[in-house]
């Protein structure tokens, strides 16, 4: 899961506009904008919202769906060395106070010595939406900025305006599949402990995370995240010795100076062989 406010911004970027098609719900895509598109860009990605259902807690489970042309991919919340992070802005929505994203386990891509993390063919991203007034429809309005890549990479924008009814819909199956594709929790994966040792470097911090749990699969990748999405994370090494997986990463803030790190805000995701483990927080040893 990923708890976010109504606005989440990735890195700054110049926007190229892609056409989006109508799917389970309508999207706003002005015809005047389509005429300015370079040829074939409109065929790269199709975006729609799967309307989902209202659950017992009063929240609404919907999903953002991105269907990609052959050979194209889009990116996970932490896109790797050369990916484009997503930017999601729901501030124009009605009857909405919060959004929780449930990211499925992503793929790890290796291209020209660069590692990126994302999805090929299709991304179904479940969203748990909290209404301000229970029992009333939610108007989901906002902007979605995603990166897409094949031989070249480009950002794409879509404007969304959909009404999510209280009643259940027929688009539940893809959302339920995506929810089942989530990473394991630390407890499910058999984690004994996760220790983070931190030391200052000239422009930030060096973090050494020691994770005591069974192997997830061959070629494990550890992704380090913090509560600050603007933080640059550079993974230096990852190695396993028996039950212990160790990763070393440099964390560089925009200030370019050492800073205080709250270990409870550190999020470690281990990816391998189509599986993932989501570890929330670590200790100082």
Overview of this protein structure:
The chain folds into two domains: 2-180, Sandwich (Immunoglobulin-like); 184-280, Immunoglobulin-like. The chain is mainly β. The protein is built from three helices and 22 strands. The strands form four sheets. Strands 2, 3, 4, 7, 8, 10, 11, 13 and 14 form a nine-stranded mixed beta sheet that branches. Strands 1-9-12-6-5 form a five-stranded antiparallel beta sheet, covered by helices on one side. Strands 15-22-21-18 form a four-stranded mixed beta sheet. The two termini are 26 Å apart. The longest helix has 9 residues, at 172-180. This is Thiol:disulfide interchange protein DsbD N-terminal domain-containing protein. Pfam families: DsbD_N.
| Main beta sheet strand tally, sense and closure | 9 strands, mixed
Please indicate the count of domains: 2
CA distance, first residue to last residue: 26 Å
Query: What is the mean predicted local confidence, pLDDT?
Result: 87
CATH architecture of the largest domain: Sandwich
Give me the secondary-structure topology:
Elements: E1 2-4, E2 7-8, E3 16-17, E4 27-28, H1 31-34, E5 45-54, E6 60-68, E7 73-80, E8 87-89, E9 98-101, E10 107-111, E11 114-120, E12 122-130, E13 138-149, E14 153-164, H2 172-180, E15 184-185, H3 186-189, E16 193-201, E17 204-212, E18 221-225, E19 232-241, E20 244-252, E21 267-272, E22 275-280
Parallel strand pairs: 3-14, 15-22
Antiparallel strand pairs: 1-9, 2-8, 4-14, 5-6, 6-12, 7-11, 7-13, 8-13, 9-12, 10-11, 13-14, 16-17, 17-20, 18-21, 19-20, 21-22
């Amino acid at each position: 899961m990923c708890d976010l406010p109504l606005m989440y911004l990735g890195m700054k970027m110049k926007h190229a506009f892609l056409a989006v098609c109508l799917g389970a719900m309508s999207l706003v895509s002005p015809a005047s904008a389509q005429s300015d598109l370079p040829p074939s860009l409109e065929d790269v990605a199709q975006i729609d919202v799967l309307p989902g259902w209202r659950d017992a807690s009063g929240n609404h489970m919907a999903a953002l769906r991105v269907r990609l042309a052959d050979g194209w991919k889009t990116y996970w919340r932490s896109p790797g060395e050369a990916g484009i992070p997503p930017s999601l802005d729901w501030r124009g929505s009605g009857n909405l106070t919060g959004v929780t994203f449930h990211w499925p386990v992503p793929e790890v891509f290796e291209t020209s010595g660069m590692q990126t993390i994302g999805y090929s063919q299709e991304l179904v991203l479940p969203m748990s939406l909290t209404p301000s007034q229970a029992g009333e429809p939610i108007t989901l309005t906002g902007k979605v900025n995603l990166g897409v890549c094949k031989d070249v990479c480009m950002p794409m924008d879509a404007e969304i305006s959909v009404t999510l009814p209280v009643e259940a819909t027929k688009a539940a199956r893809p959302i339920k599949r995506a929810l089942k594709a989530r990473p394991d929790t630390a407890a499910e994966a058999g984690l004994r402990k996760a220790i983070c040792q931190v030391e200052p470097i000239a422009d930030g911090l060096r973090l050494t995370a020691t994770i005591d749990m069974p192997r997830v699969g061959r070629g494990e990748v550890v992704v380090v995240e913090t509560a600050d999405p603007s933080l640059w994370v550079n993974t230096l090494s990852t190695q396993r010795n028996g039950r212990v997986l160790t990763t070393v990463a440099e964390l560089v803030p925009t200030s370019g100076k050492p800073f205080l790190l709250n270990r409870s805000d550190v999020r470690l995701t281990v990816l391998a062989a189509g599986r993932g483990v989501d570890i929330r927080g670590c200790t100082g040893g």
